[in-house]
Design a protein that fits this description.
single chain, 378 residues, alpha+beta, seven-stranded mixed sheet
Length: 378
């Protein structure tokens, strides 16, 4: 009876080769060769410590020890060949072994940190999916694309928030920015999104949705904390409702022209209504076939290049607007990263809503690049 091949065994030679510290071994070999050719005795022996030191930057502790033992063996060989005194050979060998052990310990600690970091990133990724749920490419009559980049490269999540849901009262969405950073900002974002998703299904009036978020934040936020946000809804054909609470104005694209949707009556950010006494106003806009609406956070418009110039979002949107929201958002995101030189210093979110003409309305609800979250690093 023939035995089926074990596929795991097919890869062990490759894994072994990948684990071999090639560069450190080459350096040790080169130093030994130079010493042998030049006949300099113990002159090059101290430099053999560069082998385990270099191995510690990329390899595990076992590989570091192997390189260190190889270097030690070569140092003994060179010392005996050059007739070095026993005391000098013992000192050089002891120093090499101490460096090797220190490098092995450093490599072990680096490996532990990498495993912890991988676990943290995994947890952050799960938290991100729970907090910022992926948005389908098609919701109701709209095509949608989202791109969110956390400034903290390893965190994956931050204080910017977005959500889009289909409710009995039409499609409703929110894009917002929590004051502050870190875990407190993430907790506040989770609170806002939880209340929004619940209220969006329960409240017929969009202003009542905003009021419920306001009441929840008033109970849970500190006196200096707040959230800027735009809450929008599409209750009936051709009508878009917008409530702006201290947030950057959305950009409306109609017939290739980009126009900021300034609020009729400025309102304070969520969480500050009790201090100002002002209430947000409902703004109704015509929103018909072919129209697009871009909502974003200040991490986009306040991104600066090396000359301290802000990113011109409206101009970029006018350049990259097309019939496919995912392509538009991707182009804007790539241009934004190019503008800042590869790394954002604040969280940035882009959400583009497109009302296609009836014949072009997709029949499926396949997720696309919507909801993708990235860590920006050079």
């Amino acid at each position: 009876m023939s035995m089926a091949p074990h596929h795991g065994d097919d890869h062990w030679p490759r894994r072994l080769i990948a684990a071999v510290p090639v560069l450190p071994i080459l350096i040790v070999s080169a130093l030994v060769l130079v010493d042998l050719v030049g006949g300099t005795g113990m002159t090059w022996v101290p430099l053999l410590a560069t082998g385990p030191a270099l191995a510690a930057t990329t390899c595990g502790p076992r590989s570091v020890l192997c390189v260190g033992l190889l270097a030690a063996a070569m140092s003994v060989t060179l010392g005996i060949r050059g007739g070095a005194p026993d005391s000098q050979l013992a000192i050089a060998l002891s120093a090499l072994l101490v460096v090797t052990l220190a490098c092995a310990l450093t490599s072990a600690r680096r490996g532990r940190r990498e495993r912890v970091l991988a676990a943290v990133r995994s947890v952050a990724e799960a938290a991100q999916h729970a907090l910022l749920q992926p948005i389908p490419a098609t919701v109701g009559p709209f095509r949608v694309a989202v791109r969110y980049s956390a400034a903290a490269a390893e965190a994956r999540i931050g204080g910017d928030l977005y959500a889009l849901v289909s409710t009995p009262y039409g499609v409703r969405l929110i894009v917002g920015d929590v004051r502050g950073k870190g875990l407190p900002a993430v907790g506040t974002a989770a609170l806002v999104l939880g209340v929004f998703r619940e209220a969006a299904y329960d409240e017929p009036d969009l202003l009542d949705v905003v009021a419920r978020i306001e009441r929840s934040l008033a109970r849970n936020l500190g006196s200096d904390d707040f959230v800027t946000a735009v809450v929008a809804g599409y209750p009936r054909e051709g009508h878009l409702e917008v409530v702006n609470c201290g947030h950057a104005p959305p950009l409306l694209v109609r017939d290739g022209v980009v126009v900021p949707v300034e609020p009729d009556r400025p309102a304070p950010p969520l969480g500050l209504r009790t201090l100002s006494g002002e209430t947000p106003a409902l703004q109704v806009l015509p929103f018909t076939d072919g129209d697009q609406l871009l909502l974003y956070t200040d991490g986009v418009t306040e991104a600066r290049n090396h000359e301290r110039e802000f990113y011109p979002l409206a101009e970029g949107l006018a350049r990259h607007t097309c019939g496919e929201p995912a392509d538009t958002v991707t182009a804007l995101h790539d241009e934004l990263l190019t503008h800042v030189g590869g790394r954002l210093h604040d969280d940035a979110a882009l959400l583009l809503l497109h009302k296609p003409t009836a014949p072009d309305t997709p029949a499926t609800r396949e997720p696309s690049g919507a909801g993708r979250i990235e860590s920006c690093s050079p």
